[in-house]
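Quick illustration, no need to memorize.
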Amino acid sequence: MSEDFAKQIENFKALPALYRHALNELENKIDIIKTEWQVRDGFSPIEHVKSRIKEPKSILQKLERKGHEFTVENMEQHIHDIAGMRIVCAFVKDIYRLVDHLCAREDMRVLEIKDYIAHPKPNGYQSLHLIVAIPLVLLEGTRWVKAEIQLRTLAMDFWASMEHILYYKFDKQLPSHVAEELKEAARAADELDQKMLRLRREILELAEGPVKEQ
């Protein structure tokens, strides 16, 4: 076994732990944000959080689709969602409020924003994706590890879950009428989000008088 190959194997073995530590750090930051909002405002706009580490098989398939060999360097450079987090909020405004806060923090870097809420995908999918880098202080020094954060409302998350189920039920080839129904369901989910936001505004105004939303 060559020295370079042996080093590659050792680096590969260390990666899952690094991404898990980065995800733990990110989970702690989000938990603190939830607690601070709860104490300050009396409620937290974050409904629930789910995290996962991408399976090696999925990483390999994604590298193949991108035309890259299965190496540690390619994984770190080209796969940004090995560590993934989904944050579900009650309202669209809460999503943008949280994004603004994350962008202003000094203990992480927001590298990329993909706004599929303002610009939904052709199939109706809505969500806001962030690629962030989390600092890990290691023996070798500080290392910035990438993670993906997906932010959705409850309605968007329900739609995405159902779309995922149907996508695999039909072996990734949805009949045209099902695809059209899904688009219509996405529009209905968006209308629900907008209606609930208007109701929230009316309730706040009734309770406190005209208010300027954050």
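The mean pLDDT is 88.
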